[in-house]
Amino acid sequence: MTLASQGWVQLRNEFATSLVRVDLATANGPVLQIADPATGRSISLDPLELSALAWCRHDQLAGLLEPAFKEQRLDDGDFPAQDDTDEQGEPQ
Fold first, then answer.
1. What is the pLDDT of residue 10?
2. Which helix (H) or strand (E) holds 43?
3. Cα–chain-centroid distance for residue 66?
4. What are the residue boundaries of the structural domains of the chain, listed by start?
5. Distance between CA atoms of 34 and 19, rounded to whole angstroms?
6. In which element (H, E) is residue 12 found?
7. Is 89 left (phi over 0), alpha (psi -120 to 50) or beta?
8. Model pTM?
9. Nearest-CA neighbor of 19 among 28, 31, 27, 4?
């Protein structure tokens, strides 16, 4: 099964690759799912969380964009192994 057939859209540039899709079938209503294929991490954001994110300024997100942020989290073990992938290594 391909990413597109599962509803995933891939966003890529020279710095990162992200996968996004809308999941309408959750018990608490629709969510936006965002996945990082490099770490296997993913997050689901509901409309309230997305609204809060939209109100952020770029400078408020700058700390998350520093290359050291991801490396430090990986070194600290803050990204535990997750198995959110299918047999082809694609996010579920």
1. 95
2. strand 41-45
3. 16
4. 4-75
5. 6
6. strand 9-12
7. left
8. 0.69
9. 4
Q: Is the pLDDT of residue 1 over 80?
A: no
Cα 66 from Cα 83, distance rounded (Å): 26
Q: Quick one: tokens of 55?
A: 């109100």
Q: Which residues contact 31 (CB under 8 A, 6 or more apart)?
A: 22, 23, 44, 45, 46
Tokens 């998350």: give the residue: 64
CA 44 – CA 53 distance, rounded (Å): 13
Say what the pLDDT of residue 58 is.
87
Whole-angstrom Cα distance, residue 81 to residue 39? 8
Distance between CA atoms of residues 54 and 46, nearest Å: 12
Q: Which two tokens stand for residue 1?
A: 């099964």
Q: What is the rounded distance in angstroms from the CA atom of residue 58 to the CA atom of residue 78?
A: 24
Task: Give 2-37 pLDDT, tens digit per residue.
Answer: 777 789 999 999 988 999 999 999 998 999 999 999
Answer yes or no: is pLDDT of 70 > 50: yes
